[in-house]
Design goal:
Blueprint: E1 7-11, H1 15-27, E2 31-35, H2 38-48, E3 52-56, H3 64-73, E4 82-86, H4 91-99, E5 104-107, H5 112-126, E6 134-137, E7 140-143, E8 148-151, E9 154-156, H6 160-171, H7 179-187, H8 196-209, E10 218-221, E11 225-228
Parallel strand pairs: 1-2, 1-3, 3-4, 4-5
Antiparallel strand pairs: 6-7, 7-8, 8-9, 10-11
Helix pairs in contact: 6-7, 6-8
Length: 229
Amino acid sequence: MATPHPTVLVVEDEPAQREVLTYNLQAEGFDVVAAEDGEEALLLVDEVTPDVIVLDWMLPGVSGIEICRRLKTKPQTTGIPVIMLSARSEEVDRVRGLETGADDYVVKPYSVLELMARVRGQLRRVRPASVGQRLEFDDIVLDSETHRVTRDGKPVKLGPTEFRLLSTFMEKPGRVWGRDQLLDRVWGRDIYVDSRTVDVHIGRLRKALCVHGGEDPVRTVRGAGYSLG
């Protein structure tokens, strides 16, 4: 089973712009969901929990600025990077966008190549394993490019699912992941898997990580899920 690709939500009311963005993001290997107005965008955020949002400032109905403000005031969505697109190039507008919570601000007309680079930059921050970064936590090292894991310098053999679980944990050490969240991130949103399957693979991950000794780094949080450290 392939690793679920990072998901980008494109919020753009101009069909041609929306199509260009969707095409180029898909060509970069991202899963893309698109909305043409703010209300649809808010519904999609709740449905798919995107990894990055590319958000136009000028939208019919609810503006991009208001969408950004709402997302950044909710604990469930405050960590999702927002790249604001705007024809407003004045410094005061850029400052307003960033102060509302946008993580980046791109002025139209923009270079598609530059925008793709900025999307990848935000992903490196929130999902480093998805862009080939090497992750470290205590004595565990995960290289997402070579698909190798070591603990205290010794190789750890993991199956593909256990590798994706560990990647998810190591991207956000200390975060508690519910079973449904892990199913979405590790197995994919369109695949039905019983939530008890998560427990089975967590057990396999624990066993593999402790095969050379050492404490179990995966913590069970009663009634909530699992966490690393």
